[in-house]
């Protein structure tokens, strides 16, 4: 019998230092991913987290609260714009390239997401200010969502990473119609692994997410709760949000080429042509 890879990750609780809790960790050891890794930290006031990078780049996102980030050459003080992701306003992030050391200090209680991908080409450290996020509205009918582009593929800041926040209101579908990006076949399709970090409002809510391939070697439909992460090594990956709850997720994508070129499931692409 074919074994499905583990695709859904519940929150963890690991103390990294005084006042710093690791609440999510996705890496190449505990997941089927090769290009994307992820950490989420919950930090108390005045706590700090330091890490030295090897052949990886990172995007550090101030999900909530205020933080200071330094690579010991540049320092970005008291960045972060919101107390809850459901304020639906963009936040500040920092890009740091490979072979550098960085430190995050909490200027308030904060939640911080650190996205990683392979990198060997040195690039400048860069503040991605909230005002520099591009905002767009996608979809129609019951397929509407709000998007904050933190690191889109037309940004020259990073070597591999793509980072985006998506808000979907109750009763709507997202990442829909189902699409995939698992073939290194540009300009038709790019190969990008992906992670979904999910939150719900109110927090006792849930969403449904399906991950499936054309040959059904992967076909899993998951009930996803607040704080959980879904990984997408390949295949289609739509999200459905029940009425009465609002969905937030942050996507991290990376692959051999930094281009988001997707392919819709041909069985469901007709949905786009509705009048």
From TrEMBL:
Keyword Transport: no
EC nos: 5.3.1.30
Catalytic activity: 5-deoxy-D-glucuronate = 5-dehydro-2-deoxy-D-gluconate
Short name of one Pfam family: KduI
InterPro entries: Deoxy-glucuronate_isom_IolB (IPR024203), IolB_Bacilli (IPR023770), KduI/IolB_isomerase (IPR021120), RmlC-like_jellyroll (IPR014710), RmlC_Cupin_sf (IPR011051)
UniProt keyword annotations, A-Z: Isomerase
Enzyme class, spelled out: isomerase
Pathway the protein takes part in: Polyol metabolism; myo-inositol degradation into acetyl-CoA; acetyl-CoA from myo-inositol: step 4/7
GO function terms (MF aspect): 5-deoxy-D-glucuronate isomerase activity; glucuronate isomerase activity
GO biological process terms held by the UniProt record: inositol catabolic process
Keyword Transcription applies: no
Protein family (similarity comment): Belongs to the isomerase IolB family.
PANTHER family: 5-DEOXY-GLUCURONATE ISOMERASE
Described function: Involved in the isomerization of 5-deoxy-glucuronate (5DG) to 5-dehydro-2-deoxy-D-gluconate (DKG or 2-deoxy-5-keto-D-gluconate).
NCBIfam families per record: myo_inos_iolB (TIGR04378)
Name of this chain's protein: 5-deoxy-glucuronate isomerase
Naturally occurring in which organism (per UniProt): Carnobacterium divergens DSM 20623
């Amino acid at each position: 019998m074919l074994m499905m890879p583990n695709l859904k990750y519940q929150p963890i609780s690991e103390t990294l230092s005084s006042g710093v809790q690791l609440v999510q960790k996705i890496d190449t050891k505990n997941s089927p991913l090769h290009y994307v890794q992820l950490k989420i930290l919950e930090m108390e006031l005045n706590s700090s987290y330091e890490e030295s990078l090897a052949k990886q780049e990172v995007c550090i996102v101030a999900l909530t609260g205020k933080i200071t980030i330094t690579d010991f050459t540049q320092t970005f003080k008291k960045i972060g714009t919101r107390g809850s992701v459901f304020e639906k306003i963009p936040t500040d992030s920092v890009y740091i390239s490979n072979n550098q050391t960085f430190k995050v200090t909490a200027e308030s209680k904060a939640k911080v997401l650190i996205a990683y991908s392979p990198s060997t080409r040195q690039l400048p450290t860069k503040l991605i200010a909230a005002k520099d996020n591009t905002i767009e509205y996608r979809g129609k009918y019951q397929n509407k969502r709000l998007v904050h582009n933190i690191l889109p593929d037309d940004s020259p800041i990073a070597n591999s990473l793509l980072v985006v926040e998506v808000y979907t209101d109750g009763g709507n579908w997202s990442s829909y119609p189902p699409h995939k990006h698992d073939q290194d076949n540009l300009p038709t399709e790019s190969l990008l692994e992906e992670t979904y970090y999910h939150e719900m409002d109110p927090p006792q809510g849930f969403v449904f997410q399906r991950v499936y391939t054309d040959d059904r070697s992967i076909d899993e439909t998951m009930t996803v709760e607040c704080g959980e992460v879904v990984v997408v090594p390949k295949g289609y990956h739509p999200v459905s949000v029940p009425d009465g709850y609002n969905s937030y997720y942050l996507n991290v994508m990376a692959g051999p080429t930094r281009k988001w070129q997707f392919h819709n499931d041909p069985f469901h692409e007709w949905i786009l042509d509705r009048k």
